[in-house]
Amino acid sequence: MEKILLADLSYEQLVSWVTGQGEPAFRATQLFEWIYRSLVSGFGAMANLPLSFRQKLADLATTQSLLPLEAVTSADGLTTKVLLQLPDGETMESVLMSYEGRQTVCVSSQVGCALGCPFCATGQSGFKRNLSAGEIVEQVLHFARQLQARDAAISNVVFMGMGEPLANYEATWQAIRILNDRRGFRLGARRFTISTVGLVPGIRRLAQEKLAVGLAVSLHAADNALRDRLVPVNRRYPLADLIAACQEYAQHTGRRVSFEYALIEGLNDGPRQARELGHLLRGLLCHLNLIPVNPTPGCTYRPSSRERVMAFRRELNRMGIANTVRLERGIDIQAGCGQLRSRF
Ligand code: SAH
Ligand code: SF4
């Protein structure tokens, strides 16, 4: 019999599972605290649970369904990437980034991705399956347990690993609710960021949620013809619809939207494109992140030169668009989305 993955369950669902096992409801509170506060994974160590219940848990349930296959740390020691095996043998990646006093986990939401952005290693590998909420939550727990040994804790969770989180909306949102729960892990709504390729219905739905999480939108081009090539799903949700949904998100949540723009030499990094981008984003509550594209084996795109990046940025500064140039982190460990898995 397949074991139940406890990290799939919200607190309320855990209560009904525990009472369904003939145990009092407060055992669920204890269990939830062990898993999300003490970060204990083995039932044997859960001292305030009766031995009989611990044995039942060991027979029926698990808190650790992900098997780390390989971990690599960047030369500067600030980025660690792990390849995790799922119970069905599929693999996916998570990354921990430590900088500016923050401990950020970058989680995957799917094995592979169906949206086929040509520069993306995950997109190049095609779609396998959605992750469950627990499989997302456990990626965070994996690093939280490691940090605990160093007296540190996770401060941020970003959905920028493999897959498109808004194409796996239910599991993504359930994972956020579980990690946000005050009775357990208690990570504030503002500490989460969902990165999306721009699925408009998902953005609209997110705008209505009670928890206002951060939204990052992968833009990469400011005109539809070019974006159709770089982000094929643009054919379904063109720029005007996307920007309107982002406007709605900023209005409903009061949070500024981040836009990601991968600079590709000679393709989307000219002064004319910078001006088009400036016009597109003008008046929107937003921040723009410029990232020289990370080369992948399946794609010939090259990162823009430093000069072109700076010229692009000057144009945007002139137009008053708040922006940051992101230096690639952990490039020596191929921390780019989907790159460890494709090598493996
Ligand atoms: N599917 C979501 C989230 C995962 S990708 C999305 O597309 O937003 C996370 C980010 O990495 C996205 O902004 C994506 O465009 C970017 N990305 C993927 N491959 C990249 C590469 N080779 N170089 C630079 N950025 C890349
Ligand atoms: Fe999927 Fe995002 Fe990669 Fe595009 S960039 S293929 S949406 S994971």
Query: What structural category arises from helix and sheet content?
Result: alpha/beta
- The poorly predicted ranges are none
The SSE string, one letter per element, is EHHHEEEEEEHEHEHEHEHHEHEHEH
The portion of residues assigned to helices is 25-40%
- How many beta strands in the DSSP annotation? 14
Shape: elongated
Describe what you observe in this structure.
It is built from twelve helices and 14 strands. It is α/β, with parallel strands linked by helices. Helix 1 (11-20) crosses helix 2 and helix 5 (133-148) packs parallel to helix 6. It is elongated and about 70 Å long. Bound molecules: S-adenosyl-L-homocysteine and iron/sulfur cluster.
Compile the SSE list and pairings:
Layout: E1 4-5, H1 11-20, H2 26-36, H3 51-60, E2 61-62, E3 67-73, E4 79-85, E5 91-99, E6 102-106, E7 110-112, H4 121-124, E8 127-130, H5 133-148, E9 156-159, H6 169-180, E10 192-196, H7 200-208, E11 214-218, H8 224-230, H9 239-253, E12 257-263, H10 271-281, E13 286-292, H11 306-318, E14 323-325, H12 339-343
Parallel strand pairs: 1-2, 6-9, 9-10, 10-11, 11-12, 12-13, 13-14
Antiparallel strand pairs: 3-4, 4-5, 5-6, 7-8
Helix pairs in contact: 1-2, 5-6, 7-9, 10-11
Bound molecules: S-adenosyl-L-homocysteine (SAH) and iron/sulfur cluster.
S-adenosyl-L-homocysteine is lined by residues 119-120, 160, 164, 195-197, 218, 260, 262, 291, 293-294, 296, 336-337.
